[in-house]
Amino acid sequence: MDDPADLSWFAGNxxxxxxxxxxxxxxxxxxxxxxxxxxxxxxxxxxxxALWLLWLIAHGHTCQQAEQAAAAHPAWQQAPNEGLNTxxxxxxxxxxxxxxxxxxxWAKPMQEAAVSWEEYRRH
Length: 123
Prior knowledge:
- The chain is mostly helical.
- It has one domain.
- It has 4 helices and 4 strands, in the order ββββαααα.
- The strands form 2 sheets. The protein has a two-stranded antiparallel ribbon. Strands 2-3 form a two-stranded antiparallel sheet.
- β2 (25-28) and β3 form a beta hairpin.
- The protein is globular, with a radius of gyration of 14 Å.
- The relative contact order is 0.15.
């Protein structure tokens, strides 16, 4: 964070999964179930849809398409622009660090998605 006050954008009491990835979502019929709640947290309700959009970008969606998909979640309507900008910056730093330390084939696309989203939010 550039400023410790930036953390206030993420405050909230909503249960968050925070580890959105294809391995943690089970599709059963017409329903999706989140599994592996090892990174569960509390915070602003819009954080989970924002984290989900990074995976959409990493798998071929444009930033605009990913944000439109995230907007289908009611919590997205509560997302303040500056909060999203702050999360995009934080995710870029996080995925830059993960990609630098990991040889796993999923880390680089996620890092590239985080870079794209942060740059998209900046413009």
